[in-house]
Amino acid sequence: MIPFKKTAQNTHNPYGGNKTFAATQTLVRPKKPALYKVLMLNDDYTPMDFVVFVVQKFFNKTLEEATAIMVQVHTTGVGMCGVYTLEVAETKVAQVRDFGAQHLHPLQCTLEKE
Ligand code: TYC
Fold it and tell me: What pTM value is reported for the model?
């Protein structure tokens, strides 16, 4: 939504008397934050059960949901784990990479603007 300005000019009272607003008043509607998809990427080495565990742990998915995402990634190369604001999405990507690396798996995920 575009912010708009309300000025003394367009608040003039046609029945006389003083203007309703003494000074220029700017009404700003807060912008909706940009959203980013977090995408899990396939590789040939990370065990399937580890991916399912990671998706449950960091994206708050059930076992069934996490399994469906893992299968999607395994069969198509990519799968969506969730949609977040930039800071949250970046944190999730870093958490997945760090957790994978700690367990010596090359698991990667990335983010993409919605
Ligand atoms: N392709 C992996 C395997 O066959 C499994 C896997 C699934 C890896 C999803 C990463 O994001 C991934 N063990």
Answer: 0.78
pLDDT of residue 26: 66
Using the mean position of ligand 1's atoms as its centre, give its distance from the Cα of residue 77 in Å.
9
Q: What number of H helices and E strands is found in the chain?
A: 3, 5
Atom 10 of ligand 1 has which residue's CA nearest to it?
42
Segment holding 82, helix H or strand E: strand 78-85
Nearest 5 degrees, angle CA 27-CA 31-CA 36?
175
Residues having CB closer than 6 A to ligand 1 are 40-44, 46-48, 51, 70, 73-74, 107
Distance of CA 21 to the CA centre of its chain: 39
Question: Mean pLDDT for the chain?
Answer: 86
Q: Is 28 helix (H, G, I), strand (E, B) or coil?
A: coil
Among the listed ranges 22-26, 35-39, 60-64, which one has the minimum average pLDDT value? 22-26
